[in-house]
Amino acid sequence: MYSMIDQESGDVNMILEHSILICHTQTMPPKQRIAPGPVGTTVAANVERLRQARGLSYVEVSRRMKQLGRPIAALGLTRIRDLQRRVDVDDLVNLAHALDVNPVDLLRPASEDSGEQSEWTPPSSDVQQTLEWLKTPEVHRGEAPPFPPNARIGPVRLTVRVRHNAPPIEIDLVPVLEHLDATQSEEGDIDGDD
């Protein structure tokens, strides 16, 4: 329905248009939920366990989540506990921060012997400095920061093929580097100026 005003007389004319009402007599099928997998179940259990271990109410965790910019209402937290609400990656990271743990600790099953996971600690300043240096474009890097004293060389592997169709051979370089390091300490520093 709409109205038109006659410009000459000022009369308002109401015009009805045809309307069709469609009614479905069948009910919609119930919404199928995707059951959480083992990792989702572990996350829900860890959130609840850590919340209780820290003596936090659902309202307090909800308040912390809001402060982190990823609000989840207290009801949403109970739905996570009851496996009625899924946790996406952003929720996972913020839940971990709200509970003062590393996000990985929410993904791991709780250790039966300790009953608690490791506390999350931010990287030390020397590690942050190294990471910033690595993120900087190579032309702007300047001198490398000192290697963090508590850092260890992780797996360094070299993959080579002796022949074109031969299977690759993988060599772990860590023992080689450690041997070179030990050899250099025995012989004195090698400065490469010889």
Main sheet characteristics: 2 strands, antiparallel
Query: Which range best describes the helical content: under 10%, 10-25%, 25-40%, 40-55%, 55-70% or over 70%?
Result: 25-40%
Average pLDDT number: 74
Number of strands: 4
Radius of gyration: 32 Å
Q: Identify the strand order in the major beta sheet.
A: 1-2
**Helix and strand sequence:** EEHHHHHHEEH
Shape: elongated
Structural classification: mainly alpha
The helix count comes to 7
Give the amount of beta strand, in percent: 5-15%
Distance between the termini: 97 Å
Pick out the low-confidence regions. Answer: 117-121
Note down, in words, how this protein is organized.
This protein is mainly alpha-helical and 194 residues long. It is 38% helix and 8% strand. The chain has seven helices and four strands, in the order E-E-H-H-H-H-H-H-E-E-H. The longest helix has 16 residues, at 38-53.
